[in-house]
Amino acid sequence: MDFNSLLHGDLKSLIQTIGYIGVFTMILLESGLLIGFFFPGDSLLFTAGFLASQGFFDITILAIGTFIAAVLGDSGGYFIGHKFGRRLFNRENSVLFHKDHLKKAEVFYEKHGGKTIILARFMPVIRTFAPVVAGIGSMHYSTFIIYNLIGAFLWAVCISLAGYFLGTLIPAEIADKFIILITLGIIFLSISPGLYHALKTKESRNKVLALLKLKK
């Protein structure tokens, strides 16, 4: 099993293969270490919680482990931003780093302040770069860690528990059919804020259309 399985939608099989360590590592990397922005955190957590309801994971271990990973990931992102500061904006783009993501997180942070660390948990890509921006800015770590703990609980723990409790309501013999539909729904909800932002004004819609034409 590799990431090709994930890209083809076989998230359940991927999670079963990588187990606890794989899930915790993916949450850690996505939470703020710059290189995990492409991981499907929301659907990963929900599906793992769902699998826990089917006996594959222990929900207590899963919830505690993902919470710790999320907190450590965001803290790592904060210290990356604190150490390297504005120099990150001068870094060249690569497969695992895009300055545009950092700039979007900065704009979001300027608008929402400290609450960004909580809100960004539910926004793919932004959640990876938000703690980095907080470290670059003037937020003290003592303030950051409070937002970090709250955000990690609401995201990692609550989404895992949501998957778990929904799974307990669905008969095991039809669980597979539901998990595919639910995962697709979560992925859609995850990308919907970005789609809304990209299409909410005529100017932004024109930019998207122009980009599509260039790709053709």
Automatic annotation (TrEMBL):
It is a multi-pass membrane protein. Residues 39-164 form the VTT domain. It comes from the Bacteria. The keyword Membrane applies. Keywords: Cell membrane, Membrane, Transmembrane, Transmembrane helix. GO terms for cellular component: plasma membrane. Belongs to the DedA family. This is VTT domain-containing protein. It comes from Candidatus Daviesbacteria bacterium RIFCSPLOWO2_01_FULL_40_24.
